[in-house]
Design brief:
Belongs to the Mg-chelatase subunits D/I family. ComM subfamily. A five-stranded parallel β-sheet has the order 11-14-17-10-18. It is elongated, with a radius of gyration of 27 Å. The mean pLDDT is 90. It is built from 20 helices and 18 strands. The protein has three domains: 167 residues, Ribosomal Protein S5, domain 2, CATH 3.30.230; 212 residues, P-loop containing nucleotide triphosphate hydrolases (Rossmann fold); 70 residues, no CATH class. By secondary structure, it is an alpha/beta fold.
Length: 502
């Protein structure tokens, strides 16, 4: 009886766990038996692996082969284990030396002719191998740029099982990753292209400076989508750790570009208004895939025509807005995905959406019902609410408005002040700060927050709304370079709320 061993990674959400693959070649009728909670794709790998090994010029054992994946209680999903399974069998048959294999984590799917194909989730898998203390990871050659984003671990790429076997025997060389090339994210236009709408432009600037959520309402064609698309251009570049977070999520979703996989700019995700709950927060059979809220992590989630979305879809946003992550339970386990995004909602004031409000033909009940899909608890989580009005007659003849570059400079300065203030707590923006910290350790004078207390006393605002208004006030103060908000900043923050009824 011969025993072989190889290692791979099981990815669940953005977390990964090392999987030990053992191969036992014993007596009995020829056959391959796979144990360790494999899913359907992994069960089918028995035939792929056997064909790939044979077509790579190696001999498959003519006896009973048992393949065990440990930990046995962890569900194994997908075809990422194919290459490791084949190497475990070859190791048990003493067809390859064990010294290099025992120090390597192997990832990839096998084609029948022995080619190694790419799989999703390479980046989180490599990160998991590094965090587990492994020295080397071997990935499909087509994913080498993605795997090479991780420092502190040797990354090698191979295009075929034959090439990998020769390397294990000391007769070949595997490909190393090239230096990381920074890719520029697509531009969505400049803020100077938006005509008029000074109040809405100011709201977008405040939203960018403090990572606040934003609601824009107004007739069609007034510029709601243009403003939302220009918000990512006002945000600072992602830090190194944030870039890896975002890139790992996009890797799991299978939407990373091939040549320059590292995402350095805030993503902009705009799902269609017919999206389902699963497409928004994540889902699918087996192990849940990341949804739009996770793909928008550290960026902007834009829901155009939000009043056309289903009520259940909108209500599903409440938990990620508060927690900054989603946990999705499916048959093969619970997947955890980060979802710290800025929400931008855009809606028409009524179903008929005329250019002039006086031309509206909707009944009063229909108007109330249209925006009534946005429930009170959801709207309460939106910090800035702007009702956009038709442009004045001379809007097209005025001077060009400020560019995104000029506004970005103020946003970067305000974010730097906020990051310095919250450094000891680990927060970087005002939008992340819990309400109790603002009310206790950073309590404002009573004379400054008097308008908020009056709104609470009259029942015009909830306690959550009061906390969010204070966050906005801190952001307004940061934009003007002040150490703390004054009563005018608080008044400006309150002015951004309760706009739906105007």
């Amino acid at each position: 009886m011969s025993l072989g061993r190889a290692h791979s990674v099981a990815v669940s959400g953005v977390d990964g766990q090392i999987v030990e693959i053992e191969a036992d070649i014993g007596r009995g009728l020829p056959g391959v038996h796979l144990v360790g909670l494999p899913d359907t794709a992994l069960q089918e790998s028995r035939d792929r692996v056997r064909a790939a090994v044979t077509n790579s010029g190696e001999k498959w054992p003519e006896s009973r082969v048992i393949l065990a994946l440990s930990p046995a209680t962890l569900p194994k999903v997908g075809s990422v284990y194919d290459v490791a399974l084949s190497l475990a069998v070859l190791d048990a048959a003493e067809a390859v030396p064990h010294d290099r294999l025992e120090k390597s984590v192997v990832l990839g799917e096998l084609a029948l002719d022995g080619r190694i194909r790419q799989v999703r989730g390479i980046l989180p898998a490599v990160l998991a191998a590094k965090n587990a203390g492994w020295q080397r990871v071997i990935v499909p050659e087509s994913t080498l740029a993605e795997a090479g984003l991780v420092d502190g671990i040797e990354v090698l790429g191979t295009g075929s099982l034959r090439e990998l076997v020769l390397w294990l025997r000391g007769d070949g060389v595997l490909t190393e990753p090239d230096p990381v090339a920074i890719a520029h994210s697509p531009a969505y236009g400049d803020l100077s292209e938006v005509v008029g709408q000074e109040e809405a432009r100011w709201a977008v600037e405040v939203a960018a400076a403090g990572a606040h959520h934003l609601l824009l309402t107004g007739p069609p064609g007034i510029g709601k989508t243009m403003l939302a698309q220009r918000l990512p251009g006002l945000l600072p570049p992602l830090t190194e750790s944030e870039s890896l977070e975002v890139t790992a999520i996009h890797s799991l979703a299978g939407i990373l570009p091939g040549g320059n996989p590292l995402i350095t700019q805030a993503p902009f995700i705009a799902p269609h208004h017919t999206s389902t709950v699963s497409s928004l927060v994540g889902g699918g059979s087996g192990m849940a895939r990341p949804g739009a809220v996770s793909r928008a992590h550290r960026g902007v989630l834009f829901l155009d025509e939000c009043a056309e979305l289903g009520t259940k879809v909108l209500e599903a946003l409440r938990t990620p807005l508060e927690d900054g992550e989603v946990r999705i339970a499916r048959r093969d386990g619970v997947a955890r995905y980060p979802a710290r995004f800025q929400l931008v909602l855009a809606a028409n004031p009524c179903p008929c959406a005329p250019a002039r409000e006086t031309d509206c033909v909707c009944a009063p009940a229909a108007r109330r019902r249209y925006l009534g899909k946005l429930s009170g608890p959801l709207i309460d989580r939106v910090d800035l609410r702007i009702r956009m009005r038709p442009m004045a007659t001379g809007a097209f003849t005025t001077d060009v408005a400020e560019s995104s570059e000029a506004v970005r400079a103020r946003v970067s300065s305000a974010r730097a002040m906020a990051a310095e203030r919250w450094r000891e707590f680990g927060w970087t923006t005002n939008g992340e700060v819990p309400g109790h910290v603002l009310r206790q350790r950073f309590r404002l004078p009573r004379s400054v927050i008097a308008p908020i207390e009056e709104a609470l006393l009259r029942g015009r605002m909830t306690a959550r709304g009061a906390d969010r208004a204070i966050r906005v006030a801190w952001t307004v103060a940061d934009l003007r370079g002040a150490d703390s908000p004054n009563i005018e900043d608080v008044g400006g923050a309150l002015n951004f709320r309760d706009r739906l009824s105007e």
